[in-house]
Automatic annotation (TrEMBL):
Compositionally biased residues, Polar residues: 134-145
Species assigned in the record: Tanacetum cinerariifolium (Dalmatian daisy)
Region span, Disordered: 131-151
Name of this protein: Wall-associated receptor kinase-like 14
GO terms assigned for molecular function: ATP binding; kinase activity
Keyword annotations of the record: ATP-binding, Kinase, Nucleotide-binding, Receptor, Transferase
Length: 151
């Protein structure tokens, strides 16, 4: 399980024969970098690890969990703890606070909700405009018909 977690955060394959002899296995490479506190050397750049505090923190937490899972002694690998911690990391990302330009805090979920509401209002306004135009067109036609009948 630890190797899978490391594969996720590094995008490396479990076996890399192009890597130095002592780093052929991803487990060896990861344990080495974690022990040396050089995890950032192997994190997949497409994760944008320095994007924000949550990304940095969660990536490092996943690496710590992987390190525990890679323990040489299988009885020392805390699988239930790992599952619980992964769930906690996932849940912590569900409501990320972002800073708006004016300095006030908004949750990203609130921003998404606000965007959806704005889109809905615009759609409703568009529908009302179309209905109004249709009514005006119908009224114009009726007025023309009434005017023609009067003539």
């Amino acid at each position: 399980f630890g190797v899978v977690l490391i594969e996720i955060i590094t995008a490396f394959k479990a076996l890399g024969f192009s890597r130095p002899h002592n780093e052929v296995t991803l487990a060896s490479l990861a344990v080495d970098r974690i022990k040396k506190n050089c995890l950032d050397e192997i994190i997949d750049p497409s994760l944008e690890p320095n994007k924000d505090a949550w990304t940095i923190s969660s990536t490092h937490k996943v690496a710590e969990l992987a390190f525990k899972c890679l323990d040489f002694h299988s009885e020392m690998r805390p699988m239930t703890e790992v599952a619980a911690e992964l769930e906690q990391i996932k849940n912590s990302g569900e409501e990320i606070t972002t800073l708006s330009l004016d300095g006030s805090n908004y949750s990203s979920l609130s921003i998404v909700h606000e965007k959806e509401m704005i889109k809905e209002v615009k759609n409703n306004e568009s529908d009302k405009t179309a209905l109004f135009d249709s009514m005006n067109s119908t009224n114009d036609k009726n007025n023309l018909l009434n005017h023609a009948e009067d003539q």
